[in-house]
Amino acid sequence: MLINCVAYQRGHKLADIPVEDISEYLAKPDCFVWVALKDATPEELAKMKAEFGLHELAVEDANHGHQRPKVEEYDDELFVVMHLIDERDGKLEAGEVHVFAGHNYILSVRNGSKRDFLGVRARCEREPKMLAQGSGYVLYALMDAVVDRYFPIIDKLETELEALEERIFTKGAARSNIRRLYRLKLKVTQLKHAVTPLMDATGKLHSGRVPEVCVRSRHYFRDVYDHLSRLNTTLDGIRDTIATAIQVNLSMVAIDQTEIGKRLAAWAGIFAVATACAGIWGMNFTHMPELQWEYGYPMALGIIATLSGVLYWQFKKARWL
Amino acid sequence: MLINCVAYQRGHKLADIPVEDISEYLAKPDCFVWVALKDATPEELAKMKAEFGLHELAVEDANHGHQRPKVEEYDDELFVVMHLIDERDGKLEAGEVHVFAGHNYILSVRNGSKRDFLGVRARCEREPKMLAQGSGYVLYALMDAVVDRYFPIIDKLETELEALEERIFTKGAARSNIRRLYRLKLKVTQLKHAVTPLMDATGKLHSGRVPEVCVRSRHYFRDVYDHLSRLNTTLDGIRDTIATAIQVNLSMVAIDQTEIGKRLAAWAGIFAVATACAGIWGMNFTHMPELQWEYGYPMALGIIATLSGVLYWQFKKARWL
Amino acid sequence: MLINCVAYQRGHKLADIPVEDISEYLAKPDCFVWVALKDATPEELAKMKAEFGLHELAVEDANHGHQRPKVEEYDDELFVVMHLIDERDGKLEAGEVHVFAGHNYILSVRNGSKRDFLGVRARCEREPKMLAQGSGYVLYALMDAVVDRYFPIIDKLETELEALEERIFTKGAARSNIRRLYRLKLKVTQLKHAVTPLMDATGKLHSGRVPEVCVRSRHYFRDVYDHLSRLNTTLDGIRDTIATAIQVNLSMVAIDQTEIGKRLAAWAGIFAVATACAGIWGMNFTHMPELQWEYGYPMALGIIATLSGVLYWQFKKARWL
Amino acid sequence: MLINCVAYQRGHKLADIPVEDISEYLAKPDCFVWVALKDATPEELAKMKAEFGLHELAVEDANHGHQRPKVEEYDDELFVVMHLIDERDGKLEAGEVHVFAGHNYILSVRNGSKRDFLGVRARCEREPKMLAQGSGYVLYALMDAVVDRYFPIIDKLETELEALEERIFTKGAARSNIRRLYRLKLKVTQLKHAVTPLMDATGKLHSGRVPEVCVRSRHYFRDVYDHLSRLNTTLDGIRDTIATAIQVNLSMVAIDQTEIGKRLAAWAGIFAVATACAGIWGMNFTHMPELQWEYGYPMALGIIATLSGVLYWQFKKARWL
Amino acid sequence: MLINCVAYQRGHKLADIPVEDISEYLAKPDCFVWVALKDATPEELAKMKAEFGLHELAVEDANHGHQRPKVEEYDDELFVVMHLIDERDGKLEAGEVHVFAGHNYILSVRNGSKRDFLGVRARCEREPKMLAQGSGYVLYALMDAVVDRYFPIIDKLETELEALEERIFTKGAARSNIRRLYRLKLKVTQLKHAVTPLMDATGKLHSGRVPEVCVRSRHYFRDVYDHLSRLNTTLDGIRDTIATAIQVNLSMVAIDQTEIGKRLAAWAGIFAVATACAGIWGMNFTHMPELQWEYGYPMALGIIATLSGVLYWQFKKARWL
């Protein structure tokens, strides 16, 4: 679905143009065309391919979807794939945006995400001096917008992890902790798949042989690279902490087990003594003088209580109870 | 076993030719010969070696089999080894395909897999413009076909893993989970051995000094590289998740243990109290006044029941029961 | 907030100058201006941007804060971000310092840390020969001061770890050990995030294509790099040791468990024998001759005591008790 | 001990020559001398050093032994160290072979292994066309022979691992499994020390700046590299699988423990109920009407049996028994 | 403290010279001065700095101490830091040696180790041909001596590990094993910190752009590199084995636990049966005919013994006892 199709000249909007006129505007000097599509059909892409002369393999990738994030150069055309990650009901949902960038055009195709890039266009149009850098700047603005959306999601993961860290050392929460840590791990993995390859690919847009399209905006691409690199470090940190937290959680379970074992042993001991005493005075020997004593019974109860008390006190002292 | 042997000129099929005429066709301009063998005998390979002038070491490797995936350059000849992986009855079976590619010939030898590459030839013949790129394009088409067959297998592994993730947090399935995780791990390792070296080798076909044969189709080889790279990332992700899942499974077992320990301790405590009481009133002292009371027995039962009840309630409250 | 703004010429202080005169002094030969800000407002930064002609993206980063440590080159301007880490009440608090360095100016902006860099300025002014190297030397002096502050913090972590190592092998401290190890791990991670990226970035200031500003002081930057590299190795060592310590702690818990299991089993066994004996002599058979024996009771007690003693001795020998 | 000393010219054997004549033959065109020593004494090596002009450090290494696998270039001389690994009684025994290779000589010194390289010499002499490539081809043939001997050993390790995999999921074998896995791990480590450094070193013989001696046989050295690379991957795979297997084994032990805990709890519960009932009816209250009932006893037994039966059935249903 | 100060010319000792004459001898052709200090004071270093013209940062490092091993180039001066590791009473003690090397001088400063380098000087003086290579050869000789001293220490660690490996599979040693493994790990880490950075630094002395001082002795530095590389591999191997051994030890503890659990369960079961039987015949029902039987009591004992025996035998068969 076409969202909009606009021609720009020296940083200023010329006009909303119909798709058919694109090639006409492409021929004008210092002019570039910026087209935004959403959930594009193969037919729409085919039309764009014809208008802009896009490379077949790039269009095929865009049609097929499910690409990993990447930046590919086809002669003087750039094809950029980025993942869009939205959070809904505690789950991460993935979409994709494909951007085709040439020296006088930019085409973005958004799939499976509800959040649009209208804000990016508005911001660009408010800064004609920047926009005058051409399609490279628009590519930067799109990438920057995508990357900026990763931050709140990753912040949320960090908050979630911190909340979990408090809980690890609480008794009785081991089962839910481990489940949450696992879920968190899966989310981090998903974000890593979005961030790391994009970071690697963006690195090629600001250092070494920078593609023609990006040369004028290379400092800006380094800025995007820098953000991605920060996100990547944060994700690695979270991942590492989760791994430690899983181990710590297991340790806490084992420690719990030991403590329960100690309490079980302590109470078993106390009652075993009582039962053994009672058993002994319950034997049927004829000649058991204490059985006939007037205060034999209270004495027996007293002995049992005393023994139990001493044991209890000993276990208490040894911190088994 | 010879499957077919065809000569092509400028993207079009010239003729099915007998093996003996190969060298004749190789001499024609803009012409290349595409031979497909299956489970080739040393004799067949020797004949091919003579016709195409293949390098001795490459032929030796093809005869010997059990190679790791690789791309080797012998002067202007390429020798490519790829693993074919089929799934049968939940098990992965491995075959191999060896491809010899020169500027005017392509020879593929398939071993130990039931699925053929006739579809590749058909597809190539339907697109003469592509086929006109020469033997490099055929090599691409073969590699693409092999790599495409990895996708459904890896998808299946992902599905299997997701099913297992559900089960990890279920009680009582630990034993079968761990077994399945282990089996899954072995499959992932097998696929890694197929994918990673091939990815590394394919990298050399599209960047840096690209072999002569592949120059015209280098964008296509990058596409193959890209697919392999995606598969590789997915496999690494699965592997990492399996490692975590094994740890989580162990944690769940430990948590289960703790819970059983608690229940054991709780019931042992309740019965120990009852038994101790009964033991005390079973002692044979002469002077135990409550034994003569008319309602002594019900009182005793009542006390025992009450104590047990209180304990039960306490354990319930502490979630040990 | 402006802390100070001073012009230097050939290593000597010229004058404290008002911010408005900066551009005037920048025009003088062999002269550079060193400005220090603290918790700068966007307005202050905007003024500095105008005076020194700072790059927009660098200023934006400084305004935004929360950068990872880095060294960025904008044409002939360097932008350096470093983390300031203070310890308060056993917790690490993070601040940031941003340094803009050109061939004739140096601007440092300190955020969120209470410790200033007045000592650095004083030291520099005492060594005019060094200061004559220009703004590069000041940049070195600032970096050196920041890095030097990491040492006592990391030393403290090492001391903490050593104290923990003693405790791991002590019984009964597992729960607090694991908690402390985890806290320590988090601190190490935080310091790693400060040290490692800064080390990588500093590497580019002494080898390869060294930025113009740093060329005259390159040996000094290697010294900073070397310190960072030592810190990094130490942190990696601590991290590795923590991982091992967590495993060892878990092992100690498991060993404790086994020992408790053994003691529980031993005592359960001893009392089970006593109770079984008493139970047998408490049976109500008419014909149990030993019950009528005059010394039956003491004999019974003797047998029970002997059996218990033998068992106790056996368990003692097997080191279960 | 000298094994043999032969001069070759253009791929053909000239003569068995005495050690003293070596320098004479070295002077002939297109001629090279191949000497094989076994457990060479320092004196023998000194003589060889004089004849061939070997580098002092290489000879020192050969005298000293216990080198890691390596390929060292001393001007136009190559010094190659390889590990020979034999299996005896399930243990791996390590020997070493040192090869000195110059453009017109090859000297191999074998230490501590019973298997000789006579087969290599015979094979080379049967292929004069190959041997005509000179000393580089002989070096290849020796390396190929050494590497080929690693294959059956590593195959055996794989077989051993597969046998163990079957056993991991068997109950009661945990102790012997873990011991075997550990032994296997040590063997893999030993082989890794033989294979990995040799692989890295061999890499330099076929790509980049290839030493003069090896230039004509570079495709052959790539073949050796390829074999080593396959072995290396296999060893890494085994190592990874062992690590997982150790974890799985631990999980199986924990699962076993849980099951034993459940059975213990179940039986303890059943008998606790019986004992408590018996204890109650063994109390000595005067007024316990059921004690006088004619069928009181069978009733009591019935109740106890019923309760036990119900418990047993419940535990069975919950799979605790 | 000055140990000695000697001038050499063309490999031969000229004279022991006073420190004041150093600059005089430095001016002579083909002459170099070799000074050895021990626990040098800042004043001594300042004097040396003046005589040899050492770089300020290098001298500062030497004064400060606690450097990581490194090789630094200051124009045509080399500054080398190495760790000296001695073993005393089973503990590793670390010292440092700093070497300043120029084309006509060598200055070594030894700190905190009792073992001197007199042997190195003696060996060098015995080989004038070698010593004629100049200060580079002396640097090599010193490095070689330091590295050679690591070997026996690492051999001892290996022996210690092997002794531990035997003990891991012994019952009841888990607690001391884990403690020893941990101590061993710490030692390995300390040695890694000495070996790995030195290895990396030495790599730059034999390949790539080799510093002027070392050019004539580059094969010798490769030899040092090679030794360090072997040590490094060995240390990595030990470290890896320790990690596995810790896991194996934990597994053995878990297996022990399971076995104790089984024995506890078995004995608990046997006694529970006996106690339950005794309890039943201890009930006070009026009508329990077997109580009046003449052989009731032996029969009861017989039944109890039989049941216990059967259970015992069953448990024995199932290897629980």
CATH architectural designation of one domain in chain A: 2-Layer Sandwich
Work out the radius of gyration of chain A: 35 Å
CATH H level, superfamily name of one domain in chain A = CorA soluble domain-like
Q: Provide the β-strand percentage band of chain A.
A: 15-25%
Distance from N terminus to C terminus of chain A (CA atoms, Å) equals 70 Å
Give the overall shape of chain A. rod-shaped
The helix count of chain A comes to 9
Number of strands of chain A: 7
Strands side by side in the biggest sheet of chain A: 2-1-3-7-6-5-4
How would you state the average pLDDT of chain A, rounded? 91
Largest interface, chains and sizes: A-B, 57 and 45 residues
CATH topology of one domain in chain A: Beta Polymerase, domain 2
Family (chains A, B, C, D, E): Belongs to the CorA metal ion transporter (MIT) (TC 1.A.35) family.
Keywords (chains A, B, C, D, E): Cell membrane, Ion transport, Magnesium, Membrane, Transmembrane, Transmembrane helix, Transport
Function (chains A, B, C, D, E): Mediates influx of magnesium ions.
InterPro entries (chains A, B, C, D, E): CorA_cytoplasmic_dom, CorA_TM1_TM2, Mg/Co-transport_prot_CorA, MgTranspt_CorA/ZnTranspt_ZntB
